[in-house]
Design goal:
The chain is mostly helical. It contains 34 helices and nine strands. It has a five-stranded mixed beta sheet. A hairpin with a 5-residue loop joins strand 8 and strand 9. Helix 2 packs antiparallel against helix 7 and helix 14 packs antiparallel against helix 15. The radius of gyration is 33 Å and the shape is globular.
Length: 821
C-alpha cells in the first residue's frame, strides 16, 4: 500500500506544473520570484548609497585582503601562503586555516565580469553579498516548492527571504563575510538533497548534493550543520519506516562525494571521520548500507513472504554489524582517533560562559538567543506565522508520506534549538522561517482556490452550494448498502431473513465504525476534512488568516527596510548627531588606520587587541600582533596579559614586539568596555587555576558605578592608554595621533629593542614543520624568556624542542652562534 501511494505521488508530481511553467499562473510566479530577487539585491545597497563602496566590520577586511592575494598571486601561492603580517611574530598559515570558497568565487566572478565590463576587485567584493542574497532568495523558493509541492508557497517564501532581517544581517553590501555565501550554498545543498528524494529514479542527484555540500565546506565552518541536517533527515525517514533503496543510494552518494571533497581542504582534514560533531552522519551512512545488505539477503533467499525468517536474518545482519562497529571503535578510541567536541560546538549544549574557554565566551555573538532576538530578526508577523507552516508541513508529510516534506520540520527544530543556544546562529532561521511562512500562506491560497473553484462549478451547474450531495455518489452508496443487506439465496425462511438483516445491519454498522477510526484513520479524517461543515469552517479561517497576513505584510516590509538601514552602518565609520541637531559622519576608525598607513614605516608593527587585527592589516597594511581568527589561543592570552598588566611590566614586553600601540576609546564598545574579558582571558588561558569567574574579575579589575577604577584597573597599561583620566609615562609611550572625536588613540613605543627586532626578521629563526615545508612559524625573541609571568609558550613543548634542535643544527652548519628560545 505504501508503494502504491508513493507511485501515485510520483504520477501526480509528473503531471502537475512546476514552480515556474508556461501557464499564466506560472508566468506570474516567475515575475514575482524575479521581483523577490531584485528586492533582495536592492535592500542590501543602503550601505553603498550612504557610505560608498567600502568593506565593513572586521572579518570582511581579512577576506578582502585574502581575495587580493589570490587575485595577484594565483591559487598555488595562495594555498601555501604563510602570512607574517598577522599574528606577529608567529605568523599564520593562511593556506591551512582558511575556508577559501568565497575568495575563489569572488575572483572568478571578478574575472568573468571584466570580460564584459570593467569592475574593480573592491567593488566585486562589496556587491558580492547582495548578489548572493538574491541567489539565496531564488533557491529558497525552489526548496520550499520541492518540500511542500506548493508553487505559491515557494513564491511567498522568496518574497519573505528577500528582506527578512535574519538573512540580511549577514549579507549587506560591503559585509564581505563567509556567511553571505554560506547561506546560499546551504540552501542549494538542501534543495539538491531533497530533490534527490523526489522519486525512485532521482537518487543519482545525491552525488550533485554532495558536490554542493563540498562548496558549502569551502565557504564556511558551519558546514557541520548542513552535514548533520542531511544525516538526521535520512535517519528520521528510516526511523519512521520510510526506508527505500533509493534513499540508501542517494545518501551514500551524498556522503561519499561530500566527504571525499571535504577532506581536500587542509582546514578540514580528516574531521568528517574523526571529530565528534561529524561522526553521526558517518554512522548513518554505514547504517543505511547495512540495512540495504540485509534487504538484499532477504530478497536473495526469497524470504519476503515469511516475516519471521526475514526478521531473523535481518537481526543477525544488524547484530553482526553492530559487533564489528563496536570492536573497531573500541580499538580506535585509545589511540585518540575520535576527537572531542570543539569549544564552539560544546557551547551549543552547555550554559554560555561555561565552555571552559574564556576567549569563546567573550564573543557577544556566542550568547544565547532570546525572544527579543527572534522578534528582532524575524519580525513578529513571521515569528507567529512560521509555527502554522510547521504544522502544515507535518500534516503534509503524514498525509502524503512524502520524504521531502519531513525535511523542513526537522530543519526548523534543529535550527531553532541552535539559535536558542547561540544568537549568531539565528542566520540559520532565515531560510526556514521564510519557507514555513511560505508554506502556511501557500497552502492557504491553494486550499482557498480549490474550495472556491468547487463552489463555482456547483453554482454554474445550478446545484446547492452549501449542502450539496453528489447524486451519483449517493446512488452508488445505496446500491452497495442494498447488496450488503440482501440475504443469501439459500435463506428462504422469512423470519431467518429478518434476523439475518438485523444482524447484518448491526454488525456492518459496528464494522464500519471500527474500519473508519481504527483500521484506516486517514480515510476517516479525510472524510471529516472534506465534509460541508469542515469546508465552511476552513473557508472562514482561510479568509481571516490570509487577511491578517495581508494586513501585517506592509509592517513587515517597513520593518525589514528599517533593519537593513540600521545594519548597513560599517564599523569603520558611522553617522552621529551633535547637540545642535546636525548629523555628521564619524570616520575616526578609518582615519586612524589611514594615518598608520600614511605615517609609519612599511615594516611597522602595531599592537592592538585582537578584534582590530584584520583592519590593521587590511586598511593600514601594517603588521598586527593578533586578529579575529583565534587559531592560537595562547598567543591571544599573552597579548591580553600584556595589555592588562601594570605599565612598567607591559612596556618591558611591548618594546620587544611592537613599534606602535593602538587603542579604541570614546565609550561604547571601546577597549575599556572589553577590558574585563581581556583580564579573564589572560588570567585563564595558560594558567594552572583554570577559567576565572567573571564576578571575581569585576571585583578586581573593573569600574564602580561612579566610574572609579579599582586599584588593579587604574594601574594597568590599558586604562592609562584609553582613559583620559590616566596617562602613560613619556619614557615608555609617545602619543602620536588622536582622532577628531577621540575614538582612537595611537602611541609610539619609545626605545624599541632593535636586537629582538632584528632577530625576529631573520628567517633562520623560524621553525618549519615539517622541515622544508612552507609552514614556518616564527618564535618569540629570546629576551622574552625573562618575563614568564606575561609571556607563556605559544606552541606545545614538542614544537619548542624542535626549535631548539633546529637552532643547534644551524649553529653547527654556520659555525657561529645561534640564539635559543
Amino acid at each position: 500500500r505504501r508503494r502504491r501511494r508513493r507511485r501515485r505521488r510520483e504520477e501526480m508530481a509528473g503531471s502537475k506544473g512546476g514552480l515556474v511553467d508556461a501557464s499564466v499562473s506560472g508566468c506570474i510566479r516567475a515575475i514575482l520570484i524575479a521581483y523577490a530577487a531584485y528586492s533582495a539585491y536592492a535592500i542590501r545597497l543602503f550601505a553603498v548609497q550612504e557610505y560608498g563602496r567600502i568593506i565593513h566590520e572586521f572579518d570582511p577586511w581579512f577576506n578582502f585582503r585574502a581575495t587580493q592575494y589570490l587575485a595577484e598571486n594565483g591559487w598555488k601561492k595562495f594555498s601555501t601562503w604563510f602570512d607574517y603580517m598577522s599574528w606577529y611574530p608567529l605568523g599564520r598559515p593562511v593556506g591551512s586555516t582558511i575556508y577559501p570558497g568565497m575568495q575563489v568565487t569572488a575572483v572568478t566572478l571578478w574575472k568573468a565580469i571584466n570580460v564584459f565590463t570593467p569592475i574593480s576587485l573592491n567593488d566585486t567584493c562589496v556587491f558580492f553579498p547582495a548578489w548572493f542574497g538574491g541567489a539565496a532568495t531564488v533557491l529558497t523558493a525552489m526548496l520550499t516548492y520541492e518540500c511542500s509541492g506548493s508553487a505559491w508557497g515557494g513564491v511567498v517564501a522568496a518574497l519573505i527571504m528577500a528582506i527578512i532581517p535574519a538573512h540580511t544581517m549577514r549579507s549587506i553590501a560591503g559585509g564581505y563575510d563567509n556567511e553571505s555565501l554560506a547561506v546560499t550554498a546551504m540552501v542549494l545543498t538542501f534543495y539538491m538533497w531533497t530533490r534527490s528524494n523526489r522519486n525512485e529514479k532521482s537518487w543519482p542527484l545525491g552525488a550533485v548534493a554532495g558536490l554542493c555540500y563540498v562548496y558549502m565546506v569551502a565557504a564556511w565552518g558551519g558546514y557541520t550543520f548542513v552535514l548533520n541536517m542531511v544525516g538526521l533527515h535520512a535517519a528520521a525517514l528510516v526511523a519512521l519506516r520510510h526506508y527505500t533503496d533509493a534513499l540508501r543510494k542517494a545518501y551514500s552518494l551524498f556522503w561519499i562525494v561530500g566527504t571525499l571533497g571535504a577532506i581536500q581542504f587542509p582546514v578540514v582534514g580528516l574531521q568528517p571521520i574523526k571529530s565528534a560533531e561529524q561522526i553521526a552522519p558517518m554512522f548513518v551512512f554505514f547504517g543505511l548500507n547495512i540495512i540495504g545488505y540485509g534487504e538484499m539477503l532477504v530478497k536473495k533467499q526469497k524470504l519476503q513472504g515469511d516475516r519471521k525468517k526475514a526478521w531473523q536474518l535481518r537481526i543477525r545482519v544488524y547484530t553482526g554489524a553492530a559487533t564489528i562497529a563496536c570492536a573497531i571503535c573500541a580499538a580506535l578510541a585509545p589511540t585518540g582517533w575520535f576527537g572531542p567536541l570543539s569549544v564552539r560546538v560544546r557551547g551549543l549544549f552547555i550554559k554560555h560562559t561555561q565552555t571552559g574557554n574564556p576567549l569563546v565566551d567573550s564573543v557577544a555573538e556566542h550568547q544565547p538567543g532570546t525572544a527579543d532576538a527572534y522578534e528582532r530578526y524575524l519580525h513578529k508577523s513571521m515569528f507567529m506565522t512560521a509555527p502554522i507552516g510547521f504544522l502544515f508541513a507535518m500534516a503534509h508529510f503524514f498525509a502524503h508520506v512524502n520524504p521531502q516534506s519531513l525535511f523542513l520540520p526537522l530543519y526548523a527544530c534543529v535550527a531553532y534549538y541552535f539559535a536558542n543556544r547561540m544568537v549568531r546562529l539565528i542566520i540559520f532561521l532565515g531560510p526556514i522561517a521564510a519557507s514555513l511562512c511560505g508554506i502556511a500562506v501557500g497552502y492557504a491560497l491553494d486550499d482557498l482556490h480549490k474550495i472556491c473553484k468547487k463552489y463555482a462549478v456547483r453554482y454554474l451547474e445550478g446545484k446547492s452550494i452549501l449542502f450539496h450531495v453528489d447524486e451519483e455518489e449517493k446512488k452508488a452508496k445505496e446500491e452497495a448498502k442494498k447488496r450488503a443487506d440482501e440475504p443469501p439465496a439459500k435463506i428462504s425462511n422469512t423470519k431467518m431473513k429478518k434476523k439475518y438483516s438485523n444482524n447484518v445491519t448491526s454488525s456492518s454498522s459496528d464494522a464500519k465504525n471500527k474500519d473508519s477510526f481504527v483500521s484506516d484513520p486517514r480515510q476517516a479524517i479525510s472524510k471529516i476534512y472534506h465534509s460541508n461543515v469542515s469546508v465552511l469552517f476552513r473557508l472562514t479561517l482561510l479568509c481571516l488568516g490570509l487577511a491578517n497576513f495581508a494586513i501585517m505584510w506592509p509592517a513587515f516590509m517597513n520593518y525589514s527596510h528599517e533593519m537593513a538601514q540600521g545594519m548597513s552602518m560599517p564599523s569603520v565609520m558611522f553617522k552621529g548627531q551633535l547637540q545642535d541637531g546636525r548629523v555628521i559622519l564619524v570616520r575616526d576608525y578609518m582615519d586612524a588606520y589611514e594615518w598608520v598607513r600614511d605615517n609609519t614605516p612599511e615594516d611597522a608593527r602595531v599592537m592592538a587587541w585582537w578584534d582590530y587585527g584584520y583592519q590593521i592589516t587590511g586598511i593600514a597594511n601594517r603588521t598586527s600582533i593578533a586578529d579575529g581568527n583565534t587559531w592560537n589561543h595562547e598567543h591571544i592570552a599573552n597579548l591580553a596579559r600584556t595589555l592588562t598588566a601594570p605599565e612598567d611590566e607591559a612596556y618591558d614586553v611591548i618594546r620587544h614586539l611592537a613599534d606602535y600601540v593602538l587603542v579604541w576609546t570614546g565609550g561604547g564598545s571601546d577597549d575599556m568596555a572589553k577590558s574585563p574579558h581581556l583580564f579573564r582571558i589572560g588570567a585563564s588561558i595558560g594558567q594552572k587555576g583554570g577559567t576565572v569567574d567573571m564576578m571575581d574579575i569585576h571585583r578586581k579589575f573593573g569600574v564602580d558605578r561612579q566610574g572609579r577604577p579599582t586599584p588593579m584597573m587604574a594601574n594597568s597599561l590599558l586604562f592609562k592608554l584609553v582613559s583620559f583620566q590616566g596617562g602613560v609615562s613619556e619614557d615608555h609611550f609617545e602619543e602620536v595621533f588622536t582622532t577628531k572625536y577621540r575614538k582612537v588613540r595611537i602611541y609610539k613605543v619609545v626605545d624599541v629593542d632593535m636586537e629582538s627586532r632584528n632577530w625576529l626578521s631573520d628567517p633562520s629563526n623560524r621553525v618549519c614543520d615539517p622541515p622544508g615545508s612552507w609552514q614556518c612559524p616564527g618564535r618569540y625573541p629570546p629576551a622574552l624568556k625573562k618575563y614568564p609571568k606575561l609571556i607563556k609558550p605559544a606552541y606545545p613543548a614538542e614544537r619548542e624542542k624542535m626549535a631548539a634542535e633546529n637552532a643547534k643544527k644551524m649553529k653547527k652548519k654556520s659555525g657561529g652562534s645561534a640564539l635559543e628560545l
